[in-house]
Amino acid sequence: MTAARLVVTPLHPVFAAEVSGVDFTSSLDRGTVAELIAAMDRYAVCAYRPGRPMPNQAHIALGQALGPIDTTPVFAIAGRKRSRLPAELNDVANIDENDEVMKEGSRVILFRRGDRLWHTDMSFHPKRAVYSLLSAHEIPPEGGDTEFADLRAAYDALAPSTKAEIEDLVAVHSIWHSRAEAGFPEPTAEEIASRPSARHRLVQRHPGSGRKTLYLASHASHIEGWPTDQGRVLLRELKEFATQSRFVYRHSWRLGDVVIWDNRCTMHRGTPYEDTRYRRDMRRATTREPAVAS
Ligand code: OGA
Ligand code: MN
Q: pTM for this structure?
């Protein structure tokens, strides 16, 4: 029997593809993993749509095939009880430990609403996220799409003068900055202490493709060495440029979808849904950089 080949079907003119032809719930051979990573390097966002939710253990195994998963908690949210999922999965659902939809005012719901700002996962950490694999276990009847922006295509389209201006800049990223922007209440001392800020170059070379990319996120609060306001204006302008519709793919979830994205060269954001009325059970495996990027 010959090994199944990954079928890669583009979903957008510049990036994002659907992957099929391989059963991702069984363990993948090295050739298939290499094909998937090649598809990720080319398309940055790959959607797998088997039509039924992926079991947690298969989801974790798929993540681990793509890179190391670190189970150390990366920040604290006061009052959150993490008991629904294994430590390898991030719980990004609106469902509490009693299996009920969270209530308005819940600190976790307010925190999750920060995902509606354009961001890339874990830019607030020195060891950034590489791949995120988001799996849909329950989806609301309306709303709750996820949008993705291609930061390599956006970089390519910048004016040469802008490229020269930003080439050597470093942005400072903090989870508490993006949460404040999204209306999260004043963080507690324990929350702040649980995750200090991190610094990352604004222009990076994407390792797998060799292409240059912007590295932006709602977590980016200012530019190192620049007056805060001036840095914020630049970051806002770049974010607006990079999220024009020509660089954006919008994913409308079907039950069971697993969308994998490369955090090093994309941004994403959740779109609104009635999050204190409808259940949305999304679970995320996240691979991490092996070493601190400078
Ligand atoms: C995430 C995220 C957005 C969404 O899981 O990292 O930002 O639409 N999710 O759930
Ligand atoms: Mn995210």
A: 0.96
What phi and psi values does residue 156 have, to the nearest 5 degrees?
Answer: -55, -35
For residue 123, being part of any structural domain is answered with yes
**271, two tokens:** 């779109």
The verdict on residue 2 lying in a domain is: no
Q: What angle do CA 191, 192, 196 make, to 5 degrees?
A: 125
Number of domains in the chain: 1
Atom 9 in ligand 1: which residue has the minimum CA distance? 270
For ligand 1, mutation pick of 59, 85, 268 (most atoms within 8 Å of CB): 268
Domain of residue 243 covers 7-288
CA of 91 to the centre of ligand 1 (A): 10
- The tens digit of pLDDT for each residue in 133-156 reads 999 999 999 999 999 999 999 999
* Angle at alpha carbon of residue 82, lines to 128 and 288, rounded to 5°: 15
CB of residue 117 inside a 6 A radius of ligand 1: no
| Residues surrounding ion ligand 2 at CB below 5 Å | 121
Q: Which atom of ligand 1 is nearest to the CA of 271?
A: 8
Q: Which atom of ligand 1 is nearest to the CA of 268?
A: 7
Q: pLDDT tens digits, residue range 10-19?
A: 999 999 999 9
State the CATH number of the domain containing residue 147: 3.60.130.10
Q: Is residue 262 part of a domain?
A: yes
pLDDT by residue (tens digit) across 112-122?
999 999 999 99
In a domain, 90, yes or no: yes
**Ligand 1 mutation pick, 138, 278, 282, 288, max ligand atoms within 8 A of CB:** 282
Between the alpha carbon of residue 237 and those of residues 149, 155, 195, 203, the distances in Å are 15, 13, 27, 15
